[in-house]
Specification:
disordered C terminus; 479 residues; 0% strand; disordered N terminus
């Protein structure tokens, strides 16, 4: 039985919370780098495409703004929990580590398996495909050229992150700064155009148009648009002063995104009548056209592509750390724990992730249409994180916690209940996609048994893979 493991297989749960004994990655990411990683992961194309869905379910400006505010608060509740977990275990791998420590190695493995293959590799394929299709529409490319572009951009972003985490972080900081500046310009210049109507911000819905069920359904696309706020926990072993900077990066990054989302939605309401906003596919382009004219449509389209590219780069940076962390414990493909001798990156894990994403693109051609299961996988991983927080409070009450989740146990509980509600709604509304996510989770069981059978004794895994004086060293200074 998988649960009847010898002592060597559970020894990892007793290891130090500060660093894995075999981790060779270097702490060179500043607070700014980690915060911008969160911004890049959250702000993609969602803020342009989901507001129409929200307006269709909540045809009243006040309720729309309330939904985006509640989504930010619920995401903050999740960030509070992850801040405690990330500060306790500032390692690569994120929820893989938390579930392993809280429950059992098999729990960590299954969540890590699901996160790496269904969430990160799948999202990379979807973003690369979306980016290529956007270019294809502008230049009139055939489907074969679009696919080639998607493959090329996947390989290129993987290459950037292969040659150094600093290069990946610099690219990420650049695209994040561009996103912030472009959206701030949109928010500031929109009202000065005079082409909108401020009275639209105070409109009321017809009696019976707003229901509790409708509000709950509207929270689903809102929360999905906020996804990515926990990106920095996966690279915690590369963040300077992680006990302080991991929580701060979550709060700073999420705070920037929440403020921008609220302001952008206010401009949408100013620019478009409710009947035009409700159900629209691309609110950003429509609002740009209404406020600034035809040229704005082209500019917004270019911005969406750059935004998608930035989110793709952030996803490529984060994902390999999951496979790397699992391989450190002998629970992944051999060699995925290898750190490049020059670039100090998890080079093999980056290559594996790129190959998986490219394979998905080749098999599915247009991947986003088949990506519904990824969302349900995210919900499963999020619920598991919160359960790990509760379990570790009871199991390891004396372990040092540089940060303790504010409002425990009620605030994390609120986020848990919200995600359980979303998961239940998805099971009813999209059973096939949910079954795909559950199937992906179950598919990890035989691989877990295979990796367990081939593991070396614990003593070998307790030794560093090479003598590296820079192991988890913090460079001078702390941004």
């Amino acid at each position: 039985m998988l649960w009847n493991l010898p002592a060597m297989l559970v020894a990892v749960t007793e290891s130090s919370g500060s660093a894995h004994p075999r981790d060779q990655l270097v702490r060179e990411l500043s607070l700014l780098d980690a915060s911008m990683l969160v911004v890049a992961s959250v702000i993609g194309a969602g803020i342009f495409f989901t507001p129409g869905q929200v307006a269709q379910l909540l045809p009243a400006p006040g309720w729309i703004m309330a939904a985006w505010a509640v989504g930010g608060v619920l995401s903050l509740a999740g960030a509070l929990a992850n801040a405690e977990l990330g500060a306790m275990y500032p390692r690569a791998g994120g929820d893989y580590v938390y579930l392993r420590e809280a429950f059992h190695p098999i729990a960590g493995f299954l969540v890590g398996w699901l996160t790496f293959f269904a969430i990160y590799a799948g999202t990379i394929a979807a973003l690369a495909s979306a980016f290529a299709e956007g270019l294809g529409e502008r230049f009139g490319w055939e489907s074969s050229t679009v696919l080639l572009c998607a493959l090329a951009v996947t390989a290129a972003t993987s290459g950037i992150n292969y040659v150094g985490v600093r290069w990946g972080a610099r690219a990420n900081n650049l695209t994040s700064a561009f996103k912030i500046l472009a959206l701030v310009a949109f928010v500031v210049l929109g009202p000065f155009s005079g082409a909108g109507d401020s009275a639209r911000l105070s409109g009321v819905a017809e009696p019976g148009a707003i229901t509790l069920v409708g509000f709950g359904q509207a929270l689903s696309p809102v929360l999905f648009t906020y996804l990515g706020w926990n990106a920095s926990i996966y690279v915690a072993s590369e963040i300077r002063s992680p006990g302080r900077n991991v929580p701060r990066s979550l709060f700073f990054g999420l705070g920037i995104c929440a403020v921008i989302y609220l302001l952008v939605n206010a401009v949408y309401l100013y620019a478009l009548p409710m009947e035009s906003l409700a159900g629209i596919g691309d609110a950003g382009t429509a609002a740009g056209l209404a406020l600034f004219g035809e040229q704005a449509g082209t500019l917004v389209g270019i911005f969406v592509l750059i935004s998608v590219l930035g989110t793709l780069n952030a996803t490529v940076l984060v994902g390999p750390r999951i496979a790397y962390a699992m391989s450190l414990d002998g629970l992944f493909i051999g060699g995925a724990d290898r750190v490049h001798s020059t670039f100090r990156t998890p080079s093999t894990a980056i290559v594996i992730q790129g190959i998986v994403a490219i394979g998905l693109l080749l098999v599915l051609q247009s991947f986003p249409a088949a990506l519904g299961f990824t969302v349900f996988a995210i919900v499963l991983a999020t619920v598991a994180d919160i359960l790990a927080l509760y379990r570790l409070r009871a199991k390891q009450p004396d372990r040092p916690r540089p940060y303790r989740a504010w409002g425990y146990p009620w605030v994390p509980g609120l986020y848990l209940v919200a995600n359980l509600g979303i998961g239940a709604a998805m099971l009813v509304g999209s059973p096939m996609e949910c079954l795909m996510g559950i199937g992906m989770l179950a598919a990890g069981l035989p691989f877990y048994a295979f990796f367990v059978a081939g593991r070396r004794p614990t003593g070998e895994y307790a030794q560093p893979q090479s003598k590296n004086p820079n192991k988890n060293m913090e460079p001078p200074g702390d941004d």
